[in-house]
Amino acid sequence: MGTAAQADIPINGARVFPESLTVDSAGNLYNSSNNGTIYRTVPGGKTAEPWIRPDAANGLTSLLGVLVDEPRGMLWACNNPGSGGPPAPGAVSSVKGFDLKTGALKADYKFPAGKPAACNDIAVAKDGALWANDTASGRLFSVPEGGNALVLFAEGPELVGVDGTAFAEDGTLYINNVRQNLLQRVNRKPDGSYAGLTTLTLNDKLNGPDALRPLGGNKFLQAEGPGGRIALIEVSGDSATVTPVKTGLDSSPSIAWIGKAGYATEGKIGYLFDPALKDKDPGQFVIRSFALPEGL
């Protein structure tokens, strides 16, 4: 990917409350939103513009994680009942897949009924399987290559609060937990089934870890919403080093990059949930740009 100009990107919309970010190899930057719209910033674009809007056909309501999957030509999105207000009638959590060229809905994998669910993040494994998590009820799901439904991989109280989900280069799955402020390795038995979690020892405390994006090897970039920072995560065995890359952000749930330019959403979620702020104008929502350190 080429290097983009490092300029903040205003999002064209009111009360957007952006969450996740993802980028394709052409340099298009996509962000999700609480209002269910997927915004796109084209290469050289000055603003993030609505690209896929909610309608009866796509069933979009409120979005968290988004992820470009170029081998399939797809943009995956975690769709949920609305946050900060009453959910739309019949809205359920699901992973939706959109054609990366046209924005047309191509797939819709609904979470099983019967439990609260919040699809939060998405990852794609080396074997092509699509993975999604459920923050509310502590579950990990996958859709095998060629499959057409979510398959439960793991469930348990230790997974309640699961948020960022990403694979290291060797295929090991790592997660963070936004409620417990943990970074964890997902262990697997020889047959590939779930074998529990290993909580990594860190050199610094986490504060609301959210998006976890692979950099290659055992390195990741992680966004921390309440902490307002982006950090480099370097895993070694059962430990990991946390190195701040960008601080001072306003509730930053996600991270993406184009060349040496990093981008972080500012969610301003206090205006969704804080009674003192709920009815106030959050102002312009902006995707913040910053230079990534040398060596990334």
Note the overall shape.
Answer: globular
Secondary-structure element order, as H and E?
Answer: EEEEEEEEEEEEEEEEEEEEEEEEHE
Number of helical elements:
1
Largest sheet: 5 strands, mixed
Structural class: mainly beta
Q: For the record, what CATH class applies?
A: Mainly Beta
**Main β-sheet, spatial strand arrangement:** 18-22-21-20-19
Say which CATH homologous superfamily is assigned.
Answer: TolB, C-terminal domain
Q: What is the percent of helical residues?
A: under 10%
Binned strand content: over 45%
User: How many strands in all?
Assistant: 25
- Classify the fold: give the CATH topology: Neuraminidase
| Overall average pLDDT | 95
How many domains, as an integer?
A: 1
CATH architecture designation = 6 Propeller
Weakly predicted, low-confidence segments: 1-5
N→C terminal distance: 14 Å
Specify Rg, calculated over alpha carbons: 18 Å
Pfam family, one: SSL_N
Protein name: SMP-30/Gluconolactonase/LRE-like region domain-containing protein
Describe the structure.
The chain has 296 residues and is mainly β. The protein has one domain (9-291): Neuraminidase (6 Propeller). Helices cover 1% and strands 47% of the residues. It has one helix at 270-273; strands spanning 9-10, 18-23, 29-33, 38-41, 49-52, 62-69, 74-80, 94-99, 105-110, 119-124, 130-134, 139-143, 151-155, 162-167, 173-177, 182-188, 194-199, 201-202, 209-216, 219-224, 229-236, 239-246, 255-258, 261-265, 286-291. A 5-stranded mixed β-sheet has the order 18-22-21-20-19, with no helix packed on it. It is globular and about 50 Å long. Mean pLDDT is 95; it is low at 1-5. This is SMP-30/Gluconolactonase/LRE-like region domain-containing protein. InterPro entries: 6-blade_b-propeller_TolB-like.
